[in-house]
Amino acid sequence: MVKTILQGGPVQWGWITLTCRDAFDVLYGDGEKSTRFYSLHIHPWMIGQPARFRFLEEVIRYIAGHIGVWNATAGEVAASIRRVP
Predict the structure, then answer these.
(1) Domain span at residue 51?
(2) How buried is 20 (Cβ within 10 angstroms: 0-12 exposed, 13-18 middle, 19+ buried)?
(3) Second label for 77, Cα 20 to 30 Å away, from 2, 52, 68, 70?
(4) Of 64, 73, 74, 63, whose CA–CA distance to 23 is shortest?
(5) Alpha carbon distance 56, 42 (integer Å)
(6) CB neighbourhood size of 24 (10 A)
(7) Are 59 and 41 in contact, with CB atoms under 8 Å apart?
(8) Residue-level pLDDT at 65
């Protein structure tokens, strides 16, 4: 029996990349009707290895390649929300 990630099994980075892209695609499609927010949560322990950088880069390039996407830091998002009356 193969263990899942949560059970201490091997991380399948291709699967994680696909999952991130799929989640973004759903929210991007929904964003045609109303504002949506996609937060890419990453942890240095999981992504902070040189061999894993390409997966993070692939996801970021994919998301940034869409029209109307605002690539912002958490601070920029917070400042934007504070300006809403």
Answers:
(1) 12-82
(2) buried
(3) 52
(4) 63
(5) 9
(6) 18
(7) no
(8) 95
